[in-house]
Amino acid sequence: MAGSTPPVTTGPRPEGSQDKLKVALGCGVGATIETYDFIGFGTAAALYFGSAFFPGSDPLSATLMSFATLGVGFAARPLGGVIAGHLGDRIGRKPVLVGSLLIMGIATVLIGLLPTYQQVGIWAPVLLVVIRIVQGLAFGAEWGGAILMTFEHAPWHRRGLYTGITQAGFPVGLLLANIAFLFSADLDGTWAWRLPFLLSAVLIVVGILVRLKVDESPEFEELKNSGEVSKNPLVEVLRDDWRNVLRALCLRVVETGGYALSVTFLMSYLESNGTPESVTLFALSFAAALGIAATTLWGRASDTFGRRAVYLVGCTVSLVWGIPMFLLADTGSAVVITIVFVISYAVCQNSLAGVQGAWFSELFNAKTRTAGTSLSYQISAVVSGFTPFVATALYAQTGWLGPAVLFSAYGLLGLIAALITSETWRPVSVAAASAEKEKTVVGTASR
């Protein structure tokens, strides 16, 4: 195995903190809101933004430019991840969580207020790009802090389950976004895409109130109290742990790039082939609803079978799913299209997302954990951000076969990355946690 095997990192409490479930749910609520905001942009880009902001182009070119704007937000995510990683390892996980949610909320509401091209000309797409960059920075700051807060509050032997709960906030956000667009689809004019963004204001208020009640990570508090907080976590993780950064990056690409192809691009593909918006949005909403449970269960499975074992399953399914996905989508059947989204999302994407929170966190030491996980996670987002653009260009040249092969190629990359990345969780780890708990109980009783 390339590189050294990282130790399974654990906190001082084998059974986790007293607030472990509240933290997991609180971080999941924030993840829900940020996903609603960020992913809602993808839905609007696929269905509405081409005509609203790039009306002078032919339909295919307008779609390309709309997806390019979508990609800009993903391109900004690594910078957000770098900033959040540095601050999360320097001043704490909680301030980053609250700040990222507030910034994302303001940016999303502003999208709902934007003038269209018909109203202000070229300034409309310019403003859209600027706000999308702000969204990207905020979303890039979100994941590392939310996952690590959950991970570091969770019991040793259930970190897959608890981080899976937080990760489940993402399909909840996807579900809410698509329900909002489904119900607004029949509204007149631009209200069909404005209303879902404006409704984000309500969610943001709820999210901020929830996150303010979440306690700081106990592991970070210990680092701070012992004076071991890293002075420059980004430099340290790139110097000492760059191999794990690269491995996690490749592991992440298969999930995020696969999502961009099998959800964002596929929605546009189906619409261009005459599939009603209501069918596509319902199918994706149904898959997202299943994904809430699926993400959590995949995370729990990684506590039983290991992180890598579950990841290998998801990557293998992704590898063989590319061509069947498009063949089935082309049937035009609402039932079959729904099945396509369920397999693409609840199986391919969720099996990977449900494991990432625990596996990525275990690859890095506590004092550089936010920097390491955020950097690898968010750099990979650049690939996914421009995947719909690349897939649309491939489709123009090769038809659906090009995007299908690209999806399978992502699966192959993930499979290779999983095989060369160390397993961080084994049954012996559970035994060690139980032994430590027993020792703690005995020690307390003797005092």
- The count of β-strands is 0
What percent of the residues sit in helical stretches (DSSP H or I)? over 70%
Radius of gyration: 21 Å
Judging by the overall fold, what is the CATH architecture?
Answer: Up-down Bundle
Distance linking N and C termini: 44 Å
* Count, helices: 19
CATH homologous superfamily grouping: MFS general substrate transporter like domains
Structurally, how many domains make up the residues?
A: 1
Mean pLDDT score, rounded?
83
Main sheet, how many strands, which sense, barrel?
Answer: none
Please identify the structural class as seen in this structure. mainly alpha
Low-confidence stretches: 1-12, 440-447
Give the helices and strands as they follow along the chain: HHHHHHHHHHHHHHHHHHH
Q: Into which percentage range does the β-strand content fall? A: under 5%
Shape: globular
What CATH calls the topology is: Growth Hormone, Chain: A
CATH class division = Mainly Alpha
Transmembrane segments: 64-84, 96-114, 120-140, 161-185, 191-210, 249-267, 279-298, 310-329, 335-355, 375-394, 400-420
Organism: Prauserella rugosa
Membrane topology: Multi-pass membrane protein
Domain Major facilitator superfamily (MFS) profile: 23-426
